[in-house]
Amino acid sequence: MSASPIRIDDLARPRLSPLLEEMIARAAPPERLAAQAVLDAASAATGLSDFGDREFVARLDLWCASVDADTGLNPWGRASLFNDFIRLAINRLKVEDMIRRQPEILDIEIERPIIIAGLPRSGTTHLVNILSADPRLNSMPLWESMQPVPEGTPPADRSQDPRFLQTRQFWGAFEEALPHMRAMHEMAPDHTHEEIELQKIDFASYELEWLSRPHAWREYYLTHDQTPHYAYGKKVLQLLTWLRGPRRWVLKSPQHMEQLGPLKAVFPDATLVITHRDPLAVIQSAVTMIAYGDRLRRRDTDPPATARYWIDRIETLLRRCVRDRASWGPERSLDVYFDRYMADQDATLDRIAALAGLERTPEARAAIDAYVASHPRAMHGKVVYDLAGDFDVDIAALRERFAFYFDAFPVAEEKL
Questions:
Q1: φ/ψ of residue 266, rounded to 5
Q2: Distance between terminal CA atoms of the chain?
């Protein structure tokens, strides 16, 4: 069955549905975001007060200040970020409390993880979900990333875990408000999620940029060593391993492309897989997704400004990848090219398994085949993109701007 084409023709002047209008009108953010208000709300929700090393508070202060400085956010955009900060602070209290009660958690080894790095929209999500189907590997579904620590003993049927049900309800409402989002990036509760969600519990990572324009935070993030925050994320992985095992993880995030040094420092025995795709196709897809979501979180959408921000941001990410790629040798890493991966997924999985020393057993192949069969590409429709028309981008000039990346990696140019 062919995928239905989706043309989002109102990125610059969104036509808001009654549901979107109601969500924005009902939002009630604080007049000013403040770190202490976040911490107080988290303590009130949990009855806990020990956040561990409080050096993170300075970063939380900067998050709050960066959001306050983004005057383009509407009430829903501000309220959703404030509530997310509280969720992260709650998670931190629970993580620190469990490790304090079970200190043996920190003795657990995270053994030879398989880590996927790659441009956003370059197949990383599909690849990590395929690998996660292998029952010998541990992975973190979206619902668990949102709330890593359970309340009491979780049910044997993970689909009945209250955290799963809450995540399904939240993201179900989000996708009802923005129905085309699933075609670009589905947020199913059981899909494998990015482990930088765990770095956010230390109030770090680049993810805040996807939801706002936090210029002060971006400057801080790009000029400060992220190794301690990768280490904090690893600590939460140790907790999750203690809760349910196994010890070998499959992980992924586009952020890793610009943090290859911290990634290697924290996971020195990892197998690294870097996916590569034409950056213009990546930008086209990413900015369309962001601009579409902006109708919910921003007062006015500005597609050309969105493109300018993310063209610059992805250039920074790729320049750092080109600079640091050689720090991971061929015995621990490989490059996967989007066009070849899409043409022959099985061959790509063979290469990854061989490098990782992971036998492709009949059971693993069957589990992966079952996942692939049930998740065909464009299963929720295919978005029709127009980078030049919707975002006022000069395609030829943009391709020249990214010549440094094409020179470093044999990436196939895609027709836009």
A1: -90, -30
A2: 24
CA–CA distance, 76 with 25 (Å, rounded to integer): 8
Of 124, 30, 22, which Cα lies nearest the Cα of 80?
Answer: 30
CA-to-CA dists, residue 84 to 26, 93, 146, 351, 396, angstroms: 17, 14, 10, 38, 39
What's the rounded Cα separation, in Å, for the pair 319 and 279?
12
Helix segments in 102-204, DSSP class H: 124-132, 142-146, 162-177, 181-185, 196-199
149 contacts: CB under 8 Å, gap ≥ 6: 91, 94, 95, 97, 98, 239
Give residue 47's identity as a one-letter amino acid code: G
Q: Which residue(s) pair with 298 in the sheet?
A: 73
How many other C-beta atoms can be found within 10 angstroms of the C-beta atom of residue 139? Answer: 21
- Put simply, whether the predicted model's pTM sits higher than 0.85 gets the answer yes
Residue type for position 181: M
pLDDT along the chain (416 residues), means of 10: 80 96 96 97 98 98 98 97 98 98 97 95 89 93 95 88 93 91 87 94 97 98 98 98 91 97 98 97 96 96 97 98 98 96 93 96 93 79 95 98 98 94
